[in-house]
Amino acid sequence: MKMRKGFGICCIALGICCLIASVGLIAYNHWEEENAQNASNSLLQDVRENILDNTREESGRDESIESPGDIPQEMLTTQVSGYDCIGVLSIPVLELELPVLTDWSYAKLKIAPCHYFGSCFEKDFVIAAHNFQSHFGRLSELQPKDLVLFTDISGTVYCYEVVLLETLPGNATQEMITSGFDLSLYTCTPGGASRITVRCN
Length: 201
Prior knowledge:
alpha+beta; nine-stranded mixed β-sheet; 3 helices; 33% helix
């Protein structure tokens, strides 16, 4: 009888520990997402200002001076708050506007979406972001023909249209970067086993 009672107490204690751990994990995830939203909003303001300055400089130049015929193959970057950025991504239907960092790492993905591969010039542009609700957590809500806009540092706006949504395995790197689409946006599913991917032209 005592053994049974002791076992019951152990089960209750274990259940309480699991509940505390779950609440702690939820609180940590909420804190991490809030930090990511604040960081990307702060960067966004700085990148917007930089784009505006560059646009003013362009409009003030003598138009009689000929510009080179070849489009540069590397996207321009600007440094704000210690991070290199290549522009701003806007998804109107999701009411999202986010800075895009020049290159990616797991640490940078916690700040803002990151340039993963290609460029807007080569039409093989891939942008990755965390599945925070304030980043790419709502990508699966997009529908074909929804608009996606990318504004580079010079102020040039590239307008894309969603073509399809697909889910790729987490290790499908080649499928991600050799899709034939002009722009791909992707994020992890919860747990990280798959990638929700939006293809645009």
